[in-house]
Give the backbone structure.
Amino acid sequence: GVAPAVHAQAAIRWRLASSFPKSLDTIYGYAEVFSKAVKAMTGGKFEISVHAGGELMPPFGVVDGVQQGTVELAHTVPYYFYGKNPAFALGSAVPFGFNARQMNAWMMHGNGRKLMNEFYGAYNIISFPGGNTGAQMGGWYRKEIKSPADFKGMKMRLGGGLIGEVMQKLGAVPQSIPGGEIYQALEKGTLDAAEWVGPYDDQKLGFHKVAPYYYYPGWWEGGPEISLYINQKAFDSLSADNKAIVEAAAGMAHGDMLAKYDALNPTALKQLLAAQAKVLRFSPAVLDASFKASMEVFAENDAKSPEWKKIYADMRTFQRDQILWFRVAEGHYDNFMAVQKI
Amino acid sequence: GVAPAVHAQAAIRWRLASSFPKSLDTIYGYAEVFSKAVKAMTGGKFEISVHAGGELMPPFGVVDGVQQGTVELAHTVPYYFYGKNPAFALGSAVPFGFNARQMNAWMMHGNGRKLMNEFYGAYNIISFPGGNTGAQMGGWYRKEIKSPADFKGMKMRLGGGLIGEVMQKLGAVPQSIPGGEIYQALEKGTLDAAEWVGPYDDQKLGFHKVAPYYYYPGWWEGGPEISLYINQKAFDSLSADNKAIVEAAAGMAHGDMLAKYDALNPTALKQLLAAQAKVLRFSPAVLDASFKASMEVFAENDAKSPEWKKIYADMRTFQRDQILWFRVAEGHYDNFMAVQKI
């Protein structure tokens, strides 16, 4: 027989700073799924407390928090930190980038995670997959968007610096407004439009009552990945088994979030339709103009940030092949099923 | 300070019977990713040896093996066991069923896993997610398939009993042939067509040289889930932390397989195209006839198996909502990207 192993291990207590409020239960929930799994796998010897955005530090202060070791972990969207370096955006989503599955393929079996972690090295950060929302919606508008010209002068709440730059090229005036204040601003008309996530999250904020035109697709977030950031020194200090436990918990919670969004979005969409939201497709002219504006911003980033340039080139090369494949079996299967009576 | 916990645990040695050969490295590889993670997370105290199809028992004997406790785990495709009860197929894929993400949504946040595990109770099995291939291809054909009439009398190698019944309604003659013998049968003409998986797996077997017409989509496998089956008593015997470790390892390996397929399929597809494979879309008439034949078989199963009837109804209800949502943001995003020059 094999002798039982005797194993002594000090308790570990870590803190995770989320960028999200608890009310975004799907996206915030990742951190809880993750930390519960770590606790269960270690019989309670490794506990990670989860703190909502603003509780320990501002929602957009979490990269500094992990970098300086104020907290061991953060759960956030990399493109929030576009201002530090455009390359952050490539860890989550860029306009006309990957869908969720393609992002996973690049991150897990392409160069994605490797290149992002090299980049994050300068911030003392190692990243793990932190969930994905799937393709988002294109936001709520007080008026119809019939042509690219309708973006001109439009005051729009946007989720990150990259889409802000693209929207500026289209003539819009990006606004940075906390989630809790968007509804009132749309109602008063100090804001003309706002993008948030998708039906499940958007419904809770009631935007359809004040800006009923709900456009798709959210071409700036075709499959945004959320990241789990861990302070490199803290991660290095873990035993090999705890490292593996963190990795597996992150991997499981990552898939769980997308499945949860996919399960919850349809009911919310139906309820929004019943509540008179006008769910409309961006016209080809609007998408084409948005695509062109995005490509201009990408070229500017190539000139500004060598880290962006290197990772972006790898991402687009990988994406070309992904699209080739997805438009064959996957795309035709989905398109056939989209019109069947089942 | 917190006192260090002292922890004694006997070593656990389990055996996993895979239904797959090692040459299918992507699908077989799930079991290795899973078992390596379990070993790493337990510091080597919980080891699962992985055995290729046929090594311990026939590839299709693994349900009996887990049921009887000959092995603790199996990694297999539930639809292989359609002959035991049609309901098995619902744990993997039915024609015109979910795509991979929709299957995850149903399994993880709909009733899918719960209903399947209730059903598996009669076999002393509890199931965990065992990977997904994504939408498969529709197989290799010696001649073009121009209309549903071309299926008549066609001897075709098929992967499971359900698609066999559907193909019989279309007039085809399903053949059960081991993977290693398909090439020769196609070359000799004793077989007219064969379906396998997708570009990455198919390319290795060289079918394009003897049956060059490669159709899509594989409407009988829009997003087949592979299952990890565990003997219920063996699972119940685990400590709470080892249960959580098994669950997280399965969850991580599950997402890893799909990402690996998505990363590998594009290059294989390009190489197959370069090697003169004729990659063609099934015509709408062929898909419509296949859809109709499938619905007939589903109705027959409703009459034959109460377990099928209950789970199938839940699955289709969930799928209706999934399709409603997927044809909005996700579908339009993918379709726009499919024709962009990036």
Notes: Chain A has a mean pLDDT of 95. Chain A is about 45% helix and 15% strand.
